[in-house]
Amino acid sequence: MYIWFTVLAGLALLSLPFLKTLFPYLGEDCVYILRSIKLGIRLVKYKKRKPFYSIVDCFLDAAEAHPSKTFLHFEGREYSYGEVDKQSNKVARALQAEARLKEGDPVALFLANEPSFVWTWLGLAKLGCSAALLNYNIRSRSLLHCFSCCSAKVIIASAELQDAVEEVLPTLRERGISVYLLSEACSIQGINTLSDKISQASDQPLPQDLRANVSIRSVALYIYTSGTTGLPKAAVITHERLWAASFIQAVCGVTSEDVLYINLPLYHSAGFLIGLVGAIERGMTIFLRRKFSASQFWDDCRKYNVTVMQYIGETMRYLCNTPQKDGERNHRVRIAIGNGVRTDIWSQFLNRFGDIKIRELYAATEGNIGFINYTSKIGAVGRVNFVHRLFFPYTLIKFDIEKEEPVRNSEGLCIEAAKGETGLLVGRVTQRSPFIGYAGNQQQTEKKRLRDVLKKGDLYFNTGDLLRFDHQNFVYFQDRVGDTFRWKGENVATSEVADILTMAHCILEANVYGVKVEGHEGRIGMAAVILREGEDFDCSDTYKKVASYLPAYARPRFIRIQPCLEMTGTFKMKKVRLVEEGFNPDHVKDPLYFLDPEKKMYVPLTEEIHRAIASREIKL
Ligand SMILES: *[C@@H]1O[C@H](CO)[C@@H](O)[C@H](O)[C@H]1NC(C)=O
Ligand SMILES: *[C@@H]1O[C@H](CO)[C@@H](O)[C@H](O)[C@H]1NC(C)=O
Ligand SMILES: *[C@@H]1O[C@H](CO)[C@@H](O)[C@H](O)[C@H]1NC(C)=O
């Protein structure tokens, strides 16, 4: 007996360091698994509560528990949990009276990154309404499209976006849409003011039965992602998704004592779901900014005691590009959550700004699978972990880049990629990991569904992303397939850009793609076009179309004139070679043009311009 005991104890003692060498990430894996299980249990509890416990209820509890705690810092002002709660009551009451909103009504928010975004959304949520978060960079055609895919009857816009609203006002009025501007006064007929009504409304709490029917499966938000064909798509975010995303901060080790810096746009899932909603879940303080500023960043962090930051690859690069100063490590930032940081930038960032835990994650707004880098592995976006995989089955399959489709065997099934091999990430659609799809766009929803993957009749969500698992089970993001590219932190759908280009009278067809530029994250827009019979390239008309219909980040900065466009066997335009050839006039024999924003036209791309881009005299 005694001997057994010592043997066992000895084994146990031995096994810890032994296990640690055999499974070097065991500790981190366990912490992550335990945290995830704890959160999973919480979600099940919320689901079962009657009425359903939503993130708004969580906010209300926080406002009751610590009403005077600062919720938002913004442009030198502080707004406590209590104040934001009251303000959102006023918004809800004003909208109830003015727009007759009730549970289930979708409302489009066309708002800048400011506190009113937060309390307007909270007000809507208190009424049980869903909110469509419109990107404030979009205009005209895109704006109307995004607005209509969520079938909202009401749009609420920031005062500073009045011009954009006016531009589409005739169409909105034709469709009987009510338009509200967050302003005290507006002389335009058909635009209602809202701020005056909000300030007159009562700040008394709203009865919970207004949202009695909201359940975990109800739509909470529509968040737009760039479509693979045509205009942006509205990804449907249910309350379940909202909760799941809100837990990311908790999984990363953020606590209620932390202060979060949000400078990413609130209309994207990073800023809204992981940032704002995550902060509500934690009951923490947010420092909100209209726009990211590299030069102000660390001063802001010091002044507001920021401890958690969010980033995208560009953010990190811009911060590393700022001139070195003394005392750069003098700040309290301890965790950075985001995605898209490259290994070299990552190391630079740590060297300069000190020991910050980076929590790199991979997830798509509408996807049913995500990863978090919870270990200290440079370059990885996460880890294959058997518990995670058990609950959320996924796999990598072989993908044909030329044909832009998965490789299938003789039985018509996909083939799993080997470890170390790049493959397309697909996540099995199950009860627990559903793929809800896009509002009012059955066709796009269907396009993201992949059937007969490993078995006849199975169903997977196609992420459209190429990843690689290494032999230690680390996950690496490789690339995105075909029809979108990422520039300045925004996804651009190539077909939307192509549609706009062909509005220029000289252009018959356009093949749009993204190309790498030395020293920049992502890919910049480029288009190979063929001209109409007998037409020359019209530098100024093309510029006009591009500038009036596309946000700056989506405009093709380079144009390549081709005699004809190469097609694949399945009549898709060939891109791989074009992407590789890029925009170097030394290598490309076709005429090349460059979008010159100062001259407001396309200009021939000379050696000189090419050199100036490479040396960063020309800023892209
Ligand atoms: C909730 O749903 C029931 C049944 O569909 C309906 O009668 C009731 O009016 C709804 N409540 C609200 C607040 O909309
Ligand atoms: C930051 O922390 C310091 C010291 O703990 C405190 O004096 C200061 O008021 C804090 N600043 C803000 C904006 O909370
Ligand atoms: C993953 O996290 C660790 C530790 O925080 C970090 O050292 C590593 O660089 C991260 N990987 C990426 C790609 O961010």
Strand content: 15-25%
Shape: globular
- Tell me the Rg in angstroms: 26 Å
Secondary structure: number of strands: 30
CATH secondary-structure class of one domain: Alpha Beta
Distance between the termini: 75 Å
What do we call the CATH topology of one domain? Rossmann fold
Structural class by helix and strand composition:
alpha/beta
Q: Estimate the helix proportion, in percent.
A: 25-40%
Bound ligands, each once = 2-acetamido-2-deoxy-beta-D-glucopyranose
**CATH architecture assignment name of one domain:** 3-Layer(aba) Sandwich
Largest sheet: 8 strands, mixed
Weakly predicted, low-confidence segments: 1-20
Enumerate how many helices there are, as a single number.
Answer: 20
Mean pLDDT: 87
Give the strand order, joined by hyphens, for the main sheet.
2-1-11-10-12-13-14-15
